[in-house]
Write the structure tokens for this entry.
Amino acid sequence: MTSYNVAESNVRKTWLLLTVFLILIIGVGWIFSYVLESPGILYFAVGFSVFMSFSSYWYSDKIVLSLAGAKLIKKSDNPALYRIVENLCITAGLPFPKIYIINESQPNAFATGRDKKHAVVAVTQGLLDKLEKSELEGVIAHELSHIKNKDMLLQTMVVVLVGVIALASNMFLRIGFYGRGRRDSRGGAGAILAILGIVSAILAPIAANLIKLAISRKREFLADANGALLTRYPEGLARALEKIAQDPNPLRKANSATAHLYISNPFRGKQAGSWIARLYSTHPPTEERIAALMGMKV
């Protein structure tokens, strides 16, 4: 599959994600509006879901950068990093992205932005301090491959939409409990619908997270392969992944909502061993990624 095919596939997945998001929110809103005999709840659900869908498209990258504590830098702040990004962008045929630095000792990186003209590459200070030039080039090439494949929009929107679904579901549950008296007056049918509404509100966030996890891990393998082809040196990225995975430093602002954006799972120690971290892990095993890279012929 070519990068063009992957990019087109990710555009379709983005629209599918938006559609499923709208259906989840509106569906739960309709159930509660029927149970509580309040059309206003449905109108609110429709308006809220539409507003957040468009907001996630336009502003999800800013939200992610804020969550990561990333700061925009200029060329004068790190000329060497700028030269690496410039050279790789020329080779990949991509516009130069904005570059952000995250003041964290753990080596890691991610890409975000709604399209290649509004792309961002964010790297931690630890990545700059601990990787050799060829390894850093491999990581940057990986992130630029995400941009070229249009992975970053899909990945970034998931962060916002999953959080919004959890928030909306919690709100609907509260509305349902507050409206219990009116619901009980409708008899058996109302009680059944009420139970259905509560179950839907509980399951909606789970369904949203399954959507998040269903965004295939093959994205990372493909970005690894494309990045290696871009630098013509798979060993550089392979060594970088090994160093990143072995680094013991925690990412202080790591959370399950944004973990899938990073080139490697940002959780360390007890964080990585917790059931929540394992549940939300969207990265293939590092050993498999390294083996795939070392088996490449470029």
Summary: The beta strands are 70-72, 98-102, 109-112, 120-124. The mean pLDDT is 79. The chain has two domains: 3-64+153-214, 67-151+217-294. The first strand starts at residue 70 and ends at 72.
